[in-house]
Amino acid sequence: MGAEKLVVVVGAGLAGLAAAREVQSHGVRVLVLEASGVLGGRIKQLNGLVPWPVELGPEFLHGKQNSSIAQIVNEMGCTMTEFPYHILVSFSSCYVCLDNLSPDFYYVGSESRLLTSEEAEDHSEIQTVHGIFAALAEETHPSPDICMDEFLRRNKVSNTVVQLAESIYANDFGCSLHQLGVGECIEEARQWIYGDTYMLLDRPLSSIVDHLSKGLNAGVLTSHPVEDITYFPTGELEVKCRGGAKFQAHYTIVTVPVKILEDESIRFNPPLPKSKVDAASTIGMSSAVKILLAFSQRFWPEEMFDVVCTDCFVPEFWATQYPCKSSRDEEALGSVLLVGFIAGETARQISKLSHSEIFSRALSQLDEIFAKIKPTKNAKLSIETFQESGGFYTRAAAKPFDPELQPASFYFAAASLVDWSREDFVRGGYSHPSLNARGAREELAKPVHGRLFFAGEATHPGVNPCMQAAIDSGIRAAREVLGCVI
């Protein structure tokens, strides 16, 4: 009987593909409708900037215990580089087991000091901020809920501690301190069950997308943004796409980013329950920007993976590379890469700037951090002009730089940038622990009338915006559907 039913999955990110795969594995027909022209959602790569594909979205797998995505990559036969501590930060990372958390390097802008993690052990304010977040799992839920900025100020910490919390924690959570809800931070700390190992695959993350979509090709339509979902008393649904395409289904699994639901970009008839609409509006998903800077050679410490910066333009830079040598692009514009990550209100403000100003300020910050000869304090920023070709930005005119004083500017080769708030079918980075959002994720995940089902990282009750949360939520929604079909 299940084969006679049709399940339409809206969205072909990890949640949608995992849901479709699970439904199909039980002999039920499934059709996936993806708004963009490619599969994978926030998993995207950029080729040609450096010799390996650069991840524009998530980069690392977070934890290998109890992890569905770790199980999948093992099935695929992937080789993984493991990092035993939380020293890396990525588009979708999650800070948990905070007693082990430590960035590789710290740049304290107010002191113009670059510190290793060992040197940071003697910096009282760095240790204070880590201690506060490490203790969150033992905190009681505030009533009413408060934002992390208020929580820190109630603890009477210094402004330096607040700035460290902004750069190390809030930025990584994908927001600003005033957007970060303490209640959901407590839940995230309590419910992390995946271990504290970070893993970097030997191939692009698109390989996971390919693996999940294998066998679904006949049932996947790209460039089909869903605009209307109508469910009838007869039990059937009609899913209508931009351009007029219509599909009749018995069940629908909606896996779009929470911002799409908040903006009501999909019309539901009858309307969704108010509790679900409110949940979508309560769960925050802020702006996120990645600045990709390619250089002709490395000028930062060889052992550095990550540097967190306070009182600076970019709060976070990291340096990794795609480990596989077999598909290196020797014609790439640069040889090595630094990725700058900015989230929350800072990202929203940065997105208003020109690309030339963004790249100029990022390079100037790196010059300041890594100069062998320290620059004059309060030196005037020079905004260079960058020209764009094929999505890459290079200098419009050559300019002399001193490699000892301005290493980033001297070795700069090319740049690119992705602003996820401007991606029409995403509109932000990833969901973050939000103010007054306790219970909102469970509400967002609830089925409606036994016909509409919901998945995506924002529906994960563990406040987990990582890739395994998206996959787990897709499987959960698929099994809810199968419980109605089989």
Outline the structure in words.
With 486 residues, the protein is an alpha/beta fold. The chain folds into two domains: 2-43 and 205-285 and 431-485, FAD/NAD(P)-binding domain (3-Layer(bba) Sandwich), CATH 3.50.50.60; 45-201 and 287-422, Polyamine Oxidase, Chain A, domain 2. 29% of the residues lie in helices and 21% in strands. The strands form seven sheets. The chain has a seven-stranded mixed β-sheet, sandwiched between helices. A five-stranded parallel β-sheet has the order 10-2-1-14-25, covered by helices on one side. Helix 4 (124-134) crosses helix 6 (159-173).
Question: Notable features of this structure?
Answer:
2 domains, FAD/NAD(P)-binding domain, about 475 residues, alpha/beta, Polyamine Oxidase, Chain A, domain 2, 15 helices, five-stranded parallel beta sheet
Summarize the structure.
The protein has 486 residues and is α/β, with parallel strands linked by helices. The chain has helices at residues 14-25, 68-76, 117-120, 124-134, 148-154, 159-173, 182-191, 206-213, 258-262, 274-282, 344-350, 355-370, 407-411, 440-445, 467-485; strands spanning 6-10, 29-33, 45-46, 54-55, 61-62, 80-83, 105-108, 113-116, 198-201, 220-221, 226-231, 237-241, 246-249, 251-254, 267-269, 284-285, 288-295, 306-310, 316-318, 336-343, 386-389, 392-395, 412-419, 431-432, 452-454. The chain has two domains: 2-43 and 205-285 and 431-485, FAD/NAD(P)-binding domain; 45-201 and 287-422, Polyamine Oxidase, Chain A, domain 2, CATH 3.90.660.
